[in-house]
Amino acid sequence: MNILSCDTSTEFMHLCLARLEEGKKPFFEKQVLTSGNQHSELLVVRILSLCERNNMQFKDLDLLVCTSGPGSFTGLRIAMSTLKGISLGSHIPMVSIPTLQAYQACNRSESHAILAVIDAKKKRFYAALFKDGVQLSPELDLEVGQIESLLAPYPDALLVGNDAALLATKLSKPYRFDEISHLNLSLVLCTLGKEKFERFGADDLDNGPLYVRKSDAEIALQQTISSLEETHD
């Protein structure tokens, strides 16, 4: 199965083109780059370059995989809408994987609890707690103090994800963190995507990103509505 995966939910862009077949050694090429606000300009260019370098066209792909969130509002939409466009145009099935679930899957050998985290800005983090591959908490939008309360029963927990090291510097107690495993995110997405597709089939193309927090635009709109209602009262 030829699989293309991508993630642009943070300032990092993760891309992978993989061939995964039972009984055969997997082939893959993955890329990780910091593209920040240039995801929209670089993603399609990088995908085309990756396929061309491996003598592959869209019609040769069997599955597309991206993250579903949480993460950057704009970043999540860029990856998902790009792959949806390829899916519709080339009739390739597509699946999405929760971002924090993918991060924890990069550390499947870890025996202790795992807290997967993404910097949510505004002194907050998106986080989810896992143990032995089982998700113990929903995807959460937390302040540092709330994260410490979540971690209290798990003093040996491992922090993972792009921003694990950043969170570790803000906690009052020392926790182990992994700065490297997220570099395998795109390859892990290929594996998780294949497993999900074989069990459940393709996602409904109407599915959108998972937003744990309202966007700034939604908050501003709600404030405007509330202000107008108070004025009329």
Describe it for me?
This is Universal protein YeaZ. InterPro entries: ATPase_NBD, Gcp-like_dom, T6A_TsaB. Pfam families: TsaD. The chain has helices spanning about 40-55, 75-90, 100-105, 145-150, 165-170, 185-200, 215-230, and strands spanning about 1-5, 10-20, 25-35, 65, 95, 115-120, 125-130, 135, 140-145, 160, 175. The protein has about 230 residues and is α/β, with parallel strands linked by helices. It folds into 2 domains: about 1-100 and about 185-220, 2-Layer Sandwich (Nucleotidyltransferase, domain 5), CATH 3.30.420; about 100-180, Nucleotidyltransferase, domain 5 (2-Layer Sandwich), CATH 3.30.420.40. The strands form 2 sheets. Strands 6, 7, 8, 9, 10 and 11 form a 6-stranded mixed beta sheet that branches. Strands 3-2-1-4-5 form a 5-stranded mixed beta sheet, with helices on both faces. The radius of gyration is 19 Å and the shape is globular. The N and C termini lie far apart (about 60 Å).
